[in-house]
Amino acid sequence: MTLDPAVAAVRSAVRRCLGDARTVLVACSGGADSLALLAAAVFETRREESVRVIGVTVDHGLQAGSSEHAASVVAQMAELGADETATIRVTVDPGPGGIEAGAREARYAALGQLAEHFGAEVVLLGHTRDDQAETVLLGLARGSGGRSLAGMRPGFDLDGIAVLRPLLGVTRAQTEAACTAEGITWWDDPHNSDHGFARVRVRQTVLPTLENELGPGVAAALARTAAQLQADTDFLDSYAEMELASSDFAAGLSIAELRRLPTAIATRVVRRLLIEAGAIASELTYEHVLAVLAVEPGKEIQLPGHLTAYRDRDLLQFRPTITPP
After folding, report:
1. Alpha-carbon gap, residue 323 to 288, rounded angstroms
2. Distances from the Cα of 75 to the Cαs of 19, 27, 70, 78, 251, in angstroms?
3. Are 245 and 238 a contacting pair, CB within 8 Å?
4. Dihedrals φ, ψ of 318, to 5°?
5. CA distances from 46 to 122, 123, 128 (A)
6. Which of 158, 241, 242, 293 has its CA 20 to 30 A from that of 79?
7. CB of 128 closer than 8 Å to CB of 33
8. Please, how many CA atoms are within 13 Å of residue 113, restricted to the half-sphere of its CB?
9. Phi, psi (5° rounding) for residue 87?
10. Any alpha helices (H) in 89-206, and if so which ranges?
11. pLDDT on residue 254
């Protein structure tokens, strides 16, 4: 019997990222992407009795009946063969970044807690190539710079735990086809049809329009662009880290030395220092960073997070912003 191509694509992607992990945590929302991911993880580890697959779902509490849905996903994960299952309820603080950013922050914190609880070395997320294309377009529209245009990383460290996105080379159509081939019924999140979210508008209107006007393959091209930019951005970030490591900033940061650096490095160094000094990363813009680089003696720049940057002779200094009584 020939294996369905979509199932093969998902399994192959998961197989490449499992490595020597003995406990794998799979984040599952009940959508096609994460269910296909979980099914593939179960299949790829079933020959190794010492490897556990933990299926977990995060209840954000943002929709009516969310707890019932979470219970349904837990039951479905068990049916698909997860060794253990869990659900966790989180409180979402929209904050300055909005509801999507708040939900993401709460979700990652919860996944970190669950991974630590189960002793998982790896957490798998179900983001696809389509998600990557949407992320790149959103970053382009917001003027968010190279890191945003580089899209989602294939993996990142979460307090010592490897968080991986195996399906960034797999399309949403493939995950749905994989679920269909395996007889898996998935849930369509109502939020994915809510045009109040910019990502939904990109998914349902902007990308289809680009495909119609420019020809097929736009999403794939955007994902390729992200992959290329990730390598460049990682190099620039590492260069900036070396500059930080080789300098003594205890007495303040030399504006003259900063301005001698290439702009791509200087802005990264300043952004990193501002965040370490207490600026809110999600609110810190490129314009803020440039203003700090250009600050003149006797001037000060107020930054998000109640932080003030000022220049003392040639040194860049930071202090808490004084709020008038």
Report:
1. 19
2. 27, 14, 9, 5, 57
3. no
4. -130, 150
5. 17, 17, 24
6. 158
7. yes
8. 13
9. -130, 150
10. 98-118, 129-142, 146-149, 172-181, 198-201
11. 84
d(CA 279, CA 2): 55
d(CA 297, CA 265): 22
Q: pLDDT digit of tens for each residue in the chain (325 aa)?
A: 688 999 999 999 999 999 888 999 999 999 999 999 999 999 999 877 789 999 999 988 777 778 898 999 999 999 999 999 999 988 777 766 677 778 888 899 999 999 999 999 999 999 999 999 999 988 888 776 777 778 899 999 988 899 999 999 999 999 999 999 999 999 887 777 778 888 889 999 999 999 999 988 999 999 998 888 888 888 998 988 888 777 665 456 788 888 888 999 999 999 888 888 888 876 788 888 999 999 998 888 999 888 999 988 888 888 898 766 5
Distance of alpha carbon 128 from alpha carbon 33, whole angstroms:
7
Yes or no: say if 144 and 229 are a contact pair by the CB < 8 Å rule.
no
Tell me the DSSP string of 216-266: TTHHHHHHHHHHHHHHHHHHHHHHHHHHHHTS--TT-EEHHHHHHS-HHHH
Tokens of 33: 């992407």
Main-chain dihedrals φ then ψ at residue 221, nearest 5 degrees:
-65, -40
Tokens 């205890």 correspond to 250
Delineate the domains of the chain, giving CATH numbers in brackets: 5-214 (3.40.50.620), 248-320 (3.30.465)
How many other C-beta atoms can be found within 10 angstroms of the C-beta atom of residue 229?
A: 18
Tokens in use for 163?
């968080």
Which value, in Å, is the radius of gyration of the alpha carbons in the chain? 22
**pLDDT for the residue numbered 247:** 67
Residue 30 has what DSSP assignment? Answer: S
Tokens of 67: 């707890």
- Look up the pTM and report it: 0.83
Nearest to 167 by CA among 316, 23, 27: 27
Q: Hunting for tokens 């191509």 — which residue is that?
A: 5
Q: Which two tokens stand for residue 21?
A: 């992990």
